[in-house]
């Protein structure tokens, strides 16, 4: 497995990859994970037998993100793969540069590879301002090339699968394996964070396509009627600094941006929240996305307020997971007030049961292993 993100890195992709590695081991495969060295991994007991970590360049928020960071992993990865003994196949995780490195190494070694298409990166670059046309074209070219040469393409949602099919045409190699959360760490039972007043929690990345700015605008309306309400962000990403600046400029003292925490610690804050916040800004080409933060909340028995105009709204509305609202400040504020008042709140046991049945990472890992059977 070739991935820049692996547990205990506090990102959904890291734990999705760990779940896949564990599923491969359960199926009888010998797995070696080639990943990055994370300060948080010191003392961490890996759930997978063989994990090889490589030092890489990280940004000031501690992420392996950006061209230089990617290449600091991808270039050594090519040679690390060439040096592996008894190599039967590789599973690659985005970005597309990692996919290209894996594709080339597998061509030299004459082994197949699977690519985990959790996102469509070329579409994502279109939502970021000031990205040169050449970069966007290059990302699209790499992504399409990696997909077309992959023995298996693992997609995490119907929306991603459909987008891949739209771009490269229908293929037997495209499999929808789903996505989810570690239901052993995110649970209804467990410690609850000692926080004053009712609060909302936002976990995970804040980027341009999330549109999390709307939560601050809605919160400014909510505190007029619920002055003790608070909002906690456990987030990193391109929009974090601008959100912090907006909160300061608007005098939103109840909004706090906390540092990244391990999953088990984040779960304690989720359990204590009146609702978890999730968003996908419409019109960014990412309406098919299903944020993992939805599953993290429901696994803890906490309802979700999702705003946008796409797959996330449908998921929340059709399964009774909380409040699904358009990307509108006033409607979002109304949903937040309803959560604070307890109006229309689903039962924690029902949310937990739905998560176990539909969004378990272990089940998704097993599904991915079955899809990869064609490789061997």
UniProtKB/TrEMBL annotation:
<keyword id="KW-0808">Transferase</keyword>
<keyword id="KW-0328">Glycosyltransferase</keyword>
<dbReference type="InterPro" id="IPR028098">
    <property type="entry name" value="Glyco_trans_4-like_N"/>
</dbReference>
<feature type="domain" description="Glycosyltransferase subfamily 4-like N-terminal">
    <location>
        <begin position="18"/>
        <end position="180"/>
    </location>
</feature>
<dbReference type="Pfam" id="PF13579">
    <property type="entry name" value="Glyco_trans_4_4"/>
</dbReference>
<dbReference type="Pfam" id="PF13692">
    <property type="entry name" value="Glyco_trans_1_4"/>
</dbReference>
<protein>
    <submittedName>
        <fullName>Glycosyltransferase family 4 protein</fullName>
    </submittedName>
</protein>
